[in-house]
From TrEMBL, chain A:
Belongs to the ATPase A chain family. NCBIfam families: ATP_synt_6_or_A (TIGR01131). InterPro entries: ATP_syn_F0_a_bact/chloroplast (IPR045082), ATP_synth_F0_asu (IPR000568), F0_ATP_A_sf (IPR035908). Its main location: membrane. This is ATP synthase subunit a. The gene is atpB. SUPFAM superfamilies: F1F0 ATP synthase subunit A.
UniProtKB/TrEMBL annotation, chain B:
Residues 5-67 form the V-ATPase proteolipid subunit C-like domain. It comes from Sporolactobacillus mangiferae. It is a multi-pass membrane protein. The record marks 55 as: Reversibly protonated during proton transport. The chain crosses the membrane at residues 6-27, 48-72. It is found in: Cell membrane; Membrane. This is ATP synthase subunit c. Keywords: ATP synthesis, Cell membrane, CF(0), Hydrogen ion transport, Ion transport, Lipid-binding, Membrane, Transmembrane, Transmembrane helix, Transport. Belongs to the ATPase C chain family.
C-alpha cells in the first residue's frame, strides 16, 4: 500500500490519484475516438473500420435485453462505459508513477509521520477503477437510472415487478434490488484492486525470482481488465433492460 | 496473528471455490465442443463471460483478504 496525496474539500476527502487517473483516462478515450472518427466516408477504410467494428460490438451488447429500436438509444452510453473502464483498467496495469517526497506537504495530507511510515515514496497515479468509490458511483448511477426509466415508462408494470411471483416475495425482491449495485461495483473493483496489489507485491521481490511471475500476471491482468469492462457493460445493459423492456 | 489467519483463510477458501467453479464450467465447455465442434466460437465467448462472472466472487474475497492482511479494514 503506497501513500497517496489526499485533498480535503467541504469535509470530504478526495484522493488525488483517482482524480488524476480519471482525467488521464477521459482524455485518452477522447483523443482515441476523435482520431478514429476523423474524415468519415461512405466507403469505410482503415480507422473508420475499426470504429465501426467497436460500435457493432457494442450494439451486440445493448441488443441482449432490448429490441433493436429501443437499444439504439443506449449505444452511446454503453460505448462510453466500455471504453472508459477498459482504458482505465489497462492504464493501471502498465503505468506506475511513484515519486520520493522528502519534505511534508500538509495541504495534500502528506504529514511527516505518514511519510516516515511509507518510506517517503508517494504514489501519484493508479487506475480509477481500483478505487471502491468510483465503481460504486458508476454502479449506483446505473441503478438509479434503471429504476427511474422503468418507473417513468410503465409505472404499473414496474410496481407489479416487486410482487412477483407471489406477494410475500416482496422482501426478497427488495434485497435483490439492493444487492445488484453492490455486486456490480464490487466485481469490477475487486478484480482491478487485487491485480494492482499483486503487481505491487511482485515488484518489491527479488528480480530473478519474481520477474517471470510478474510478466505472466501482467498479461493476465490485461485479459481480466478487458473481460471485466465487457461484463460491467453487459450487466449495466441487462439491469436497465430488465426495467425498461415491456413484458 | 488472528488477522493474518483470517486473511489467509479468506484468500485460500476463495481460491478453492474458484477452482471448483472454473473446473465445472470448463469441463462443460469441453463436453460441448466435443459434441458439437462447429459451435466452438460461440461457446468460447459465452464461456469467457461466465468465467468472468464466476471469477468475480473469489476475487472479491481475495481483495477483502488483502485489506484484512494489511490491516486496512
Amino acid at each position: 500500500m503506497d501513500l497517496t496525496p489526499k485533498v480535503k474539500f467541504m469535509g470530504l476527502t478526495f484522493d488525488l490519484t483517482v482524480i488524476i487517473g480519471s482525467l488521464v483516462t477521459a482524455v485518452i478515450v477522447y483523443i482515441l475516438v476523435t482520431l478514429l472518427a476523423r474524415r468519415l466516408s461512405i466507403r469505410p477504410t482503415g480507422r473508420q473500420n475499426m470504429l465501426e467494428y467497436i460500435i457493432d460490438f457494442i450494439s451486440g451488447i445493448t441488443g441482449i435485453m432490448m429490441e433493436k429500436k429501443e437499444s439504439l438509444k443506449y449505444i452511446s452510453f454503453a460505448m462510453t462505459t466500455f471504453l472508459f473502464i477498459m482504458i482505465a483498467n489497462l492504464l493501471g496495469v502498465i503505468v506506475i508513477v511513484t515519486t520520493e517526497v522528502t519534505g511534508p506537504i500538509p495541504s495534500l495530507g502528506l504529514t511527516a509521520s505518514a511519510l516516515e511510515a511509507a518510506n517517503h515514496s508517494v504514489s501519484w497515479f493508479k487506475s480509477p477503477t481500483s478505487d471502491l468509490n468510483v465503481t460504486f458511483a458508476m454502479a449506483g448511477a446505473v441503478m438509479l437510472y434503471s429504476h427511474f426509466a422503468g418507473a417513468v415508462k410503465h409505472p404499473l408494470a414496474y410496481a407489479k415487478d416487486y410482487f412477483k411471483p407471489y406477494w410475500w416475495m416482496l422482501p426478497f425482491n427488495i434485497i435483490d434490488e439492493l444487492a445488484k449495485p453492490v455486486t456490480h461495483a464490487a466485481r469490477l473493483w475487486a478484480n482491478i484492486f487485487a491485480g494492482e496489489v499483486l503487481i505491487l507485491i511482485l515488484r518489491e521481490g527479488t528480480l530473478y525470482l519474481t520477474a517471470a511471475p510478474l510478466l505472466v500476471w501482467m498479461g493476465f491482468s490485461i485479459f481480466v481488465g478487458c473481460i471485466q469492462a465487457y461484463i460491467f457493460t453487459v450487466l449495466a445493459m441487462v439491469y436497465i433492460g430488465q426495467k425498461v423492456s415491456a413484458d | 496473528m488472528t488477522t493474518i489467519l483470517a486473511g489467509a483463510i479468506m484468500i485460500g477458501l476463495g481460491a478453492l471455490a474458484a477452482g471448483i467453479g472454473d473446473s465445472i464450467l470448463f469441463a462443460r465447455y469441453m463436453e460441448g465442443i466435443a459434441r458439437q465442434p462447429e459451435a466452438r466460437g460461440t461457446l468460447f465467448g459465452q464461456t469467457m463471460i461466465l468465467f468472468g462472472l464466476i471469477e468475480a466472487l473469489p476475487i472479491i474475497s481475495i481483495a477483502f483478504g488483502i485489506l484484512v492482511l494489511f490491516g486496512i479494514v
